[in-house]
Amino acid sequence: MKLIIEETEQKMSESAMFILLGAMMQDKRVNISLTSGRSPKTMYDMMIPYVKNQEKFKDIQYYLFDENPFINEEYGPNWKDMQELFFKPANIPDSHIHIMNADNWQDYDNEIRNVGGIDVMVIGLGYDGHFCGNCPRCTPFDSYTYQIDFKEKQAVNPDYKDRPYQPFTLTMGPKSLMRVKHLVMIVNGKEKAEIFKRFLDEPINQDVPATILKLHPNFTVICDQDAASLIHYEQYSRL
Question: How many structural domains are present in the chain?
Fold first, then answer.
């Protein structure tokens, strides 16, 4: 694992963007997986002018790594968030955006593998140590893409609120992420400092499921000074 601590969120976002753009410059079909949420917003704002309507990026394909589908709706909230954050402003055609749903999730990993795999994936670190849709105390560490009932998540994580119109979660599991060629985690803000320290310090465990990702052979973690405020870099520089 390579740990990079940047001074600000802006610099953290810039470093992550350069990793993405570097991968996207390859002379082949490139498959990218991106995260929604607050952490990547600055990165997307910076990246949109580089990507929008650029012929050199015409072969880029985008894969969502999790979803919480609404009943009787084609698209879930993650797809909608990514449309707002990046896909629409960057003018990414829908034909280049691949989602998982109740019909295709069981074959999602094979679909990705058959087109060359994910070249680079950017994820965040959840406030409770989750990654993608892999939540504390209910993440099967030996899984590829899987479905989990929301009530099962609530049974072990009672702070999760009811979602009557989203009965289950679909997510790439740990084994799916281990296939990604370059896995990048971005973490920012003082509110993430405690869970970030736990992620770095603790052995692999179900209370902080993101700890499993430290086994990835090409894993880059980029954070800002606020997120790193509880750690001493020298302890982790050789991880």
Answer: 1
